[in-house]
Amino acid sequence: MVRMTRIRRLIYEILKDTTMPLSCLEVRNKLLEMGADVFPSTVYRTMEFFEENNMVLKADLPGSLGTYYILKEDSHKHFAICLNCKKKFEIKGCPVSDTIETEDENFKITSHKFMVFGYCSDCSKNN
């Protein structure tokens, strides 16, 4: 049983109400909008707690540009994230699904992470 403090509950609700991955900064800004003045370190520790308890998926942007989190769900989603403006786009379908083969024919995949990084149409014009 996971102990849910008031702040954990608020952060969980924020994640539950979004369809896109969020950074800790984005979560903190939403908390501030709700009137919950929380230290950034509290948000980071809560996200680590959620990850340790298998409640969120975590994805690091290349080059230490940030980390994004999304709640784990029965149906999973994949995202493309712009390295410049940080806009997020949902990838339609699962490009991994049944296309992976391993040397072990009986290997059963139970989960995977897949994020694509690049530049959105607005930012690619400038690069």
From TrEMBL:
Pfam families: FUR. Keywords: DNA-binding, Iron, Metal-binding, Repressor, Transcription, Transcription regulation, Zinc. Signal peptide: none annotated. InterPro entries: FUR, Fur_C, WH-like_DNA-bd_sf, WH_DNA-bd_sf. It comes from the Bacteria. GO terms for biological process: negative regulation of DNA-templated transcription; regulation of secondary metabolite biosynthetic process. Binds 1 zinc ion per subunit. Binds 1 Mn(2+) or Fe(2+) ion per subunit. Fe cation binds at residue 112. Zn(2+) binds at residues 82, 85, 120, 123. Its cofactor is Zn(2+); Mn(2+); Fe(2+). GO terms for molecular function: DNA-binding transcription factor activity; transcription cis-regulatory region binding; zinc ion binding. Belongs to the Fur family. This is Fur family transcriptional regulator. It comes from Citroniella saccharovorans.
